[in-house]
Design goal:
Helix content: 25-40%
CATH topology: Aminopeptidase
Mean pLDDT: 94
Number of domains: 1
Structural class: alpha+beta
CATH architecture: 3-Layer(aba) Sandwich
Shape: globular
Largest sheet: 7 strands, mixed
Distance between the termini: 21 Å
Low-confidence stretches: none
CATH superfamily: Gcn5-related N-acetyltransferase (GNAT)
Number of strands: 7
Length: 174
Amino acid sequence: MNPVLFHSLKGARIELRKISLEDAAEMYAYLSDEEVSRYIGWKLMHTIDDTRRHIGTLLEREASGTHLYAAVILKSTGAVIGNAMLFNMDAREGHAEIGYVLHKGYWGQGYGTECVALVDAFAFEVLQLHRLYACVIAANLPSARILEKNGYRLDGTLPDGSLRFKKESGKWNI
């Protein structure tokens, strides 16, 4: 795993960097939004202190070596507009799950598509993973479209009704 490189990925309009406690106020703006929260696996944040604790949990998970979390930064302003993640990584089996969340003010503008493309390239080219998964709540059709634009295909439906998508690198070491 290479967290330093993950935290320095740059796209045309966004870049990733390590999450810090100083991001709490900006992250609270979207993690406390019920419309955003209904589509992600994190509980709704009720206070900035909740968000700080959440950030602490993310940093602890990252230290475990199986999770990577980043703040998604809008290059033009430096604002934190979301988070990107690779988690449940299994280097031996060559797979991980990706996730992303954006402030709803940035939905529908291509930032999610750009974010997923950055994370995918890192996972396949740097980490040499073979397979990526992503789960989407069935009602979140825009997120499903983001995955499809990035080459993911529907892999199945989970017991809770969520849609599971899969993307393979096309490169296998045998």
